[in-house]
Every structure is written in structure tokens, then in C-alpha cells.
Write a structure and sequence with these properties.
Radius of gyration: 24 Å
Number of strands: 13
Shape: elongated
Number of helices: 9
Structural class: alpha/beta
Distance between the termini: 72 Å
Order of helices and strands: HEEEHEEHEHHHEEEHEEEHHE
Helix content: 25-40%
């Protein structure tokens, strides 16, 4: 009886393995996907791993009224099913509207093979440079950015959907493709559509606690900050923001320059995005009601004399 049971288990494993093997030949593994709007149609750019080589990728384009139609057409063209489980990057064009984002969110939520954990970026235009860029290189750029210039950090589609559902806004890394692929900061999407400036993008990362050590460029001078900590205080109709960082630099006289720069960016972000910042705080602090925004920003830079062992030498 035991041997007979083992035999049936072996048969099941063998048959399942065969089906899985056959299924691999019927799928096209998507590594990245670009989406833009042309007129009233979506145009998709699907980068698919070649079945002949793990390093070789092919890009297929399709234009249609909705994303389901685009994918169905590509499935027919390739005679394979597009497979999203290993996708690393979603590239969105700068001209998408709130309705487009709704459609994109619903499309991915309905895809059984999509993990939605892939990085998502907004670009000024979808061109060959960004399409042929290695998705791993883009992800590395985002990881490096948050720890160097604090302009942007990696954001997944799941993060974006969660933000939109909770307070109807998300901050997505914005990249320009010009002579070089360059991270410019954050783009706000959904209820509004605008590009934050450099100082406001830094403020977002500080307020959300995404950055501890980074550098700021002020009038062509670079200042290295470490162990940054931000405390958000909510009390009835008052918001307090306390930012503290350590500065390992050449001279203590640099501190007012740094404090003024960070304070300007923080106040600009709160002034220009106060409703969104309010929604974020209400969400973070368990739905406490804050009716009027009065705020105070306190920037405290602690001078630490530079030593030969500092990492930024």
C-alpha cells in the first residue's frame, strides 16, 4: 500500500512537471512595460525576454482603446501569453490623466500573474533610450538617489495604489531622458498632476522618513548630512515639523546655509501641497481631524567636526 501510494505521488509530480514545462514554452516573460496616450488610444511598449537568451530582450508595441485589448493583440501576435510575474519596471508617460491611472490600476489588479511590486516611474517621454535601459539600472539609480541627493526613492505600483486609495495622491519618481537618463524628483499624480521642484522632493523624503544620510547641493557647494530624523506633530489645527540632522563638514558657519535651504524646501512643499500633506497626516495619525493648517518648521543641524575617518572624504 505504501509503495502504491508513493507511485501515485510520483505520477502526479511527473504529470504536473510536464504541464509546467509545456506552459513555459507558451509564455512571454515581460521585464518592463511602457504606457503612454496617443490621441484617445493607449500605446504600450512591452519588453519581453528572448527565449533564446536570458540577456536578450525584444520590444513589441501595440496601440488600442484599452490595455486588455493591447495585451490580447500581443498574445495573438506572439502566439504566447504575456507573463508579468517577473516584471521589474513600469514606465508611465507624463501625459496620463486621472482616468488613465484608474484604468491602469484596474488592469494590473485584474492580472493574475502580476505581483505589482515592480518599480514605477514617470518619464517626460517614452523613447528608445528609456525603453532600452536596463530595468535593474533604473532601480539602482532610484536606490542610489535616496541615499545621495534624496530626490526620489523606489516606489512600487502597490505603494501607489495604496496611496491613492488612502489619500488620493501618490509621489512617483520623475525621470528625464535628454542626453542622460536623470532623476529630477517627484511627480504628484491622481487628484493633481504636477512636478515637484528639487527642494520639495527632498522635503517629501524627509517628511516620510525615507532618508537618513544624504547630500545637498547649494550654490555649487555640497553638504553631507547624516542621521536625519523628522518628527511630525499634530495638535487640533496645528502642525509642527521638527527636522534634525548631523553635519560633518569643514566649518560650523555652513550650518545657517543648510538650515535655510531645508526650511525653504519644507515650507514650499507644505504651502504648495498643503491639502495633500494634510491628507497624509490624517491618514498617518489615525484619522485625527485637522481643520486649518497652521504650521511651524524647525530645522536643527548639529555640527560634527570633520575627521579623517568620515565616510564622505
Amino acid at each position: 500500500m505504501i509503495r502504491k501510494g508513493l507511485f501515485f505521488i510520483f505520477v502526479i509530480i511527473f504529470l504536473t512537471g510536464c504541464d509546467h514545462y509545456n506552459d513555459i514554452g507558451n509564455i512571454a516573460v515581460v521585464s518592463s512595460l511602457g504606457i503612454t496616450i496617443q490621441g484617445s488610444n493607449y500605446k504600450t511598449y512591452v519588453k519581453v525576454l528572448s527565449s533564446n537568451s536570458e540577456n536578450e530582450e525584444n520590444i513589441y508595441t501595440e496601440s488600442c482603446s484599452d490595455l486588455d485589448e493591447c495585451f490580447n493583440n500581443l498574445n495573438t501576435q506572439l502566439m504566447k501569453r504575456l507573463y508579468l510575474a517577473h516584471m521589474d519596471l513600469l514606465i508611465l508617460s507624463n501625459n496620463l490623466t486621472k482616468e488613465n491611472y484608474d484604468h491602469i490600476f484596474n488592469f494590473f489588479l485584474n492580472q493574475q500573474t502580476s505581483r505589482n511590486s515592480f518599480s514605477t516611474i514617470v518619464v517626460d517621454k517614452i523613447d528608445n533610450k528609456i525603453l532600452h535601459a536596463d530595468s535593474m539600472d533604473i532601480n539602482n539609480m532610484l536606490s542610489l538617489s535616496v541615499g545621495t541627493n534624496a530626490l526620489a526613492s523606489r516606489v512600487s505600483l502597490s505603494d501607489i495604489i495604496k496611496d491613492v486609495l488612502n489619500f488620493r495622491i501618490s509621489y512617483i519618481p520623475y525621470i528625464e531622458t535628454g542626453d542622460f537618463v536623470t532623476i529630477k524628483g517627484y511627480k504628484t499624480v491622481y487628484d493633481e498632476n504636477k512636478l515637484l521642484n528639487k527642494e520639495e522632493s527632498i522635503a517629501v523624503n524627509l517628511l516620510k522618513g525615507k532618508v537618513k544620510n544624504f547630500s545637498v547641493l547649494i550654490d555649487k557647494n555640497t553638504y553631507h548630512l547624516e542621521e536625519c530624523n523628522v518628527i511630525n506633530k499634530v495638535d487640533d489645527n496645528f502642525i509642527g515639523v521638527d527636522v534634525s540632522c548631523n553635519y560633518h563638514g569643514d566649518k560650523e558657519e555652513d550650518i545657517p546655509i543648510i538650515e535655510k535651504y531645508l526650511e525653504k524646501g519644507m515650507k514650499s512643499f507644505i504651502d504648495n501641497n498643503n491639502q495633500n500633506y494634510l491628507k497624509y497626516l490624517i491618514y498617518k495619525y489615525e484619522n485625527r481631524q485637522v481643520d486649518v493648517i497652521n504650521y511651524k518648521v524647525n530645522i536643527n543641524i548639529n555640527y560634527k567636526e570633520k575627521t579623517g575617518g568620515d565616510i564622505f572624504e
